[in-house]
Amino acid sequence: MKRNSTVRLTITAIFTAILILQTIVPNIGYIHIFPGLPAITTVPLTVAIYGALMGTKAGFIFGLFWGITRFIAAYAMPSDMVSLLLFQNPLISIVPRVLAGVTPGIIVNLFKTDNPKMQKVSYLLAGFATSFMNTAFVIIMTSLVFMGDPTHLTKYLGSVNTSQPLIMILIVALGVNGIVEMIFTGLLTPIIMPALKLVMKKA
Fold first, then answer.
1. Per-residue pLDDT of the chain (203 residues; tens, 9 = 90+)
2. CB under 8 A, 24+ apart: contacts of 5-13
3. Residues 126, 134: Cα–Cα separation, whole Å
4. How many CB atoms lie within 10 A of CB 136?
5. Helix (H) or strand (E) holding 27
6. 41 φ, ψ to 5°?
7. Phi, psi (degrees; rounded to nearest 5) at 30
8. β-bridge mates for residue 31, sequence order
9. What is this structure's pTM?
């Protein structure tokens, strides 16, 4: 029991360090490709793997930590106006990350099996779903926060049709980032997870 707790604590420390590095080192966790738009983030991969390994409770705490670091970074290291407007609001920076954190554990629990192929399917879905939850709820929370005055945000989104509902504008503006993140996280999670599970068993 004590050994298991030590292993879990060690894994948590390693993943926390990785997340901090992804937050503070440019172009590791947040990669800017499209000028003026929020960065494509690789952090959902870290969160998906941690949540799938450690379960929903640990994933919740890790997602909360991710949200808090994103909130702090929006003030300490603002990269563009859209990110500044979005992630300086705790509803947008924290809530989607918490939901993303619990998602992989829930999905892996639904697929509890010793079948390696089904395990890989669960990891694939966990990766896709973690990234989707983050992007989807950033869009949902943003549309709610800026419902009263969307022009304060849309003027920084480039060439958009401001006559459309804000949520549609956000889907178009952030959708490309979200798709790239989902593919990246979904494909890499089932590749990395089996090796980490093996290390955990041997530890």
1. 667 788 889 999 999 999 999 998 878 888 877 666 677 889 999 999 999 999 999 999 999 999 999 999 988 887 777 778 889 999 999 999 999 999 999 999 998 888 889 999 999 999 999 999 999 999 999 999 998 888 878 777 765 566 788 888 888 888 888 999 999 999 999 999 998 888 777 76
2. 7/200, 7/203, 8/54, 8/58, 10/203, 11/50, 11/53, 11/54, 11/200, 12/50, 12/54, 12/58, 12/62
3. 12
4. 17
5. none
6. -110, 135
7. -130, 110
8. 40
9. 0.90
| DSSP letter (8 states) at residue 40 | E
Specify which residues 30 forms β-bridges with.
Answer: 41
User: Helix, strand, or coil here: 170?
Assistant: helix
Contact 195, 49 (CB under 8 A): no
Cβ partners under 8 Å of residue 172, min gap 6:
160
DSSP lists the bridge partners of residue 41 as 30
189: nearest Cα among 70, 90, 43? 43
Quote the CA–CA distance of 133 and 125 in Å, as a whole number: 12
Secondary structure of residue 30 in the 3-state scheme: strand
